[in-house]
Fold this protein.
Amino acid sequence: MSLVHYLQHWLSGTGVPLHVADFVPDTHPIRQWADTFPWAALVTAIEHSFAQRYPPRSPRGRRPVPIRVLLALELLKHELGGSDEDICHRLRTDFAVMYACGLREYQAPRSQVHFVLPETLCEFRGRIDEALMDELIAIQAAAAMEEGLVSPAHLVIDTFPCEQGSQRVTDATTLYKAQKKPSP
C-alpha cells in the first residue's frame, strides 16, 4: 500500500522527485553517448553567441527551456534519426533522453505536458549559425582529443552536406586513401 501512496503523491506533482540516473543504467547507449560531451563548454559558447546576436528575453511569460535541453534534443534527433515530434515525445517518456538532456530529477507536473514543443526546437536550430556551429565542433573535437577518444591524426571534420550514398571526392577521402596506400 505504501508504493501506491508514494506514486499517488508523485503523479499529483507533490511527492518526492525521481532521480533519472537511477532508471538509466551505466551501460545504456544514450547515457554513454551523453557522458562524452563537454556540455558546460558547449552551453557557454551558445549562450555567449546568443547574447551577442539576440536581445535579452523579457522576464514575463513562460520560463525559457534550458539551452542544454535544446542542444541535447537537437543532437539526439540527428543521432537517432527521428523527427522533432519524435524526440520531443521521447523527452516526456524516456528516462535515457531525460538523462542526456541534463534533467537529473523528474516529477510529473501537470502544467508541463508539452515541456518542449517541436516548434521550439525548430526555432533553436534556426539560431545556430555557421560560426557557432564551427565553434561547437571545435569544442567537441578538443574534448574528444583530451579524453583520448580520437587522435589528431584521425580527426577529419567534413561538414559539407551531400546526398547519402554519393561518391563525392573530399579531402578526407583523399587523405584516407593516401594513408591506406603503402609507401614505396
Notes: The chain has nine helices and two strands. The chain has one domain: 18-153.
